[in-house]
């Protein structure tokens, strides 16, 4: 726990937007000694190692844990309840081949478990140390303790290497208890009232998370296509650059999830001759995507790809396909057709193709319809890719291709739920997908984006690349959904 000793008693104030402020000191109730934190962590580790693999966001499922190493432990509150912020390296494998992931844990400790907390959130009873007999639990589910976190964000506190930073004019209240979000997600979120939502990133990499980086760039440019960034917090990990740990944004209380809206429409296709016109929404969503791309191209680095870099782009797609074939052998029979589609990129006079920062994992579930129009969420990129790769500029049409896949998913999801083959339903579903895909592309072009229909080879390669990612994602997380991207691969392999 190398950093722990510096995390006590000294609370540094940050001025708005993270500009350095004169360092002050106050105790803020954080008085536990470094030895106290070490002792607490040691007592907690057996409970943590049993609980971690049961969490949805834990990436090491199925691999034995060979080591648990605290990286930074910061007591944010002592007493009853106590709050411990912990960054923990989890190792798999032994010797030189050991691999590790760092996770963020927010641990609550109370003599009695908080009322209403579910069993999934309880790690167990501590045996030994200062808190002997107290309950250790996931503090994301404790409104009082998550309220404390909002206070730190509002005041811009600093504890050792843990810095809370707020954006100017964010008007952050304190004294609001937080409630854990129940949304299906890769991280954990806490909602404050109807005003703010704090995402706590669970798997932590050194460096700025693209979700913060891009949301901040869009917020600063005044874009209304994302929920405005109000604050964030970060920490140094060992000797590397600060890692983003949490992102506080405006909450959209009246928003409807694009995926739910699409499923609702698709479900009413049969038997309802006029089940609403989602294509109008798809068109608007295309415009919103183009708007976001335009701001990102204006405010963040862009580049043009020469022939050599187009070959690298195609080569990376082929490499991802090969790894996917190794993981899901059912892909093998499509390999040569799909490789030929990637190869086509180098023959397609794409030299000079512009690349820029993009969303990176766009789908209907990341789009929220609000009374003011579509808003995009979660600019983290594909969670399976290393952070450095997710931050690379890409063709903007990669996001468009990803969203096209999502229309296909919504239609295929309906068919997957049907009791048996239903040719009429299959026809209706595929017409729904085609109509909405076309409307989305038209909206994207009308919004100032490059016309996707003018680059069919590029779009085909990008769609294949996404579907290959989805095959691996579904095989790993939702095997019963695997037929959805596999059907798309089958179709895309046949299209020339
Ligand atoms: N600003 C917001 N306003 C309302 N709901 C939100 C907001 N941000 C996220 N959500 C809800 O939380 C869900 C998960 O958010 P997301 O950023 O995708 O998390 P993760 O990266 O953990 O998957 C979203 O699908 C949405 O339902
Ligand atoms: O939302 P996340 O950032 O966690 O993204 C991952 O999970 C998505 C599913 O929740 C997954 O998206 C795939 O399934 C969607 C339907 O559930 C579909 O609309 C998308 O088109 C499809 O890619 C996403 O790929 C994954 O990274």
Automatic annotation (TrEMBL):
Pathway where this protein functions: Glycan biosynthesis; glycogen biosynthesis
Region annotation (Disordered) ranges: 1-25
SUPFAM superfamilies, alphabetized: Protein kinase-like (PK-like) (SSF56112)
Reactions it catalyzes: D-maltose + ATP = alpha-maltose 1-phosphate + ADP + H(+)
Gene3D superfamilies membership: 3.90.1200.10
Enzyme Commission number, as recorded: 2.7.1.175
Keyword field: ATP-binding, Carbohydrate metabolism, Glycogen biosynthesis, Glycogen metabolism, Kinase, Nucleotide-binding, Transferase
Source taxon at top rank: Bacteria
Enzyme class: transferase
InterPro entries assigned: Kinase-like_dom_sf (IPR011009), Mak_N_cap (IPR040999)
UniProt key word Transmembrane: no
UniProt keyword Transcription regulation, yes or no: no
Pfam families reported in the protein's UniProt record: Mak_N_cap (PF18085)
Maltokinase N-terminal cap domain location: 51-142
Family the UniProt entry places it in: Belongs to the aminoglycoside phosphotransferase family.
Subunit-structure text: Monomer.
Name by which UniProt lists this protein: Maltokinase
Organism: Kitasatospora cinereorecta
Lineage: Bacteria, Bacillati, Actinomycetota, Actinomycetes, Kitasatosporales
């Amino acid at each position: 726990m190398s950093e722990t000793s510096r995390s006590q008693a000294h609370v540094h104030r940050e001025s708005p937007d993270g500009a350095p402020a004169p360092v002050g000191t106050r105790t803020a109730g954080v008085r536990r000694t470094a030895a106290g934190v070490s002792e607490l962590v040691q007592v907690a580790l057996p409970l943590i190692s049993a609980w971690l693999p049961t969490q949805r966001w834990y990436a090491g499922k199925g691999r034995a844990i060979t080591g648990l190493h605290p990286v930074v432990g910061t007591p944010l509150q002592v007493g009853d309840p106590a709050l411990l912020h912990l960054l923990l390296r989890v190792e798999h494998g032994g010797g030189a081949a050991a691999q590790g992931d760092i996770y963020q844990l927010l641990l609550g400790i109370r003599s009695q478990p908080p009322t209403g907390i579910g069993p999934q959130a309880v790690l167990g009873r501590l045996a030994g140390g200062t808190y002997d007999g107290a309950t250790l639990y996931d503090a994301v589910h404790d409104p009082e303790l998550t309220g404390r976190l909002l206070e730190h964000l509002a005041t811009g506190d600093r504890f050792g290497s843990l810095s809370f930073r707020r954006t100017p004019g964010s008007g952050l209240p304190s004294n609001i208890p937080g409630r854990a979000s129940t949304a299906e997600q890769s991280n954990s979120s806490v909602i404050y009232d109807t005003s703010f939502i704090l995402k706590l990133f669970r798997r932590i990499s050194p460096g700025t998370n693209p979700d913060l980086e891009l949301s901040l760039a869009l917020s600063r440019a005044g874009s209304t296509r994302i929920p405005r960034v109000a604050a964030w917090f970060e920490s140094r990990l060992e000797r590397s650059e600060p890692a983003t740990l949490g992102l506080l944004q405006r909450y959209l209380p009246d928003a409807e999830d694009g995926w739910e809206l699409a499923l609702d429409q698709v479900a009413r296709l049969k038997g309802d001759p006029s089940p609403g016109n989602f294509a109008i929404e798809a068109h608007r969503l295309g415009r919103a995507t183009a708007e976001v791309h335009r701001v990102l191209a204006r405010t963040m680095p862009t580049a043009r790809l020469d022939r050599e870099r187009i070959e690298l782009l195609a080569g990376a797609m082929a490499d991802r396909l090969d790894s996917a074939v190794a993981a899901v052998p059912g892909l093998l029979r499509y390999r040569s057709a799909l490789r030929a589609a990637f190869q086509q990129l180098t023959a397609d006079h794409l030299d000079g193709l512009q690349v820029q920062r993009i969303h990176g994992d766009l789908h209907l579930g990341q789009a929220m319809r609000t009374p003011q129009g579509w808003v995009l969420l979660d600019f983290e990129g594909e969670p399976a890719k290393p952070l450095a790769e997710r931050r690379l500029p890409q063709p903007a049409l990669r996001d468009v291709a990803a969203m096209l896949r999502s229309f296909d998913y919504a239609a295929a999801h309906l068919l997957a739920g049907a009791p048996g083959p239903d040719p009429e339903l299959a026809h209706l579903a595929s017409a729904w997908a085609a109509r909405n895909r076309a409307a989305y592309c038209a909206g994207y072009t009308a919004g100032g984006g490059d016309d996707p229909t003018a680059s069919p080879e590029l779009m085909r390669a990008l769609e294949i690349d996404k579907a290959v990612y989805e095959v691996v994602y579904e095989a790993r997380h939702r095997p019963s959904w695997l037929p959805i991207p596999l059907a798309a691969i089958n179709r895309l392999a046949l299209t020339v």
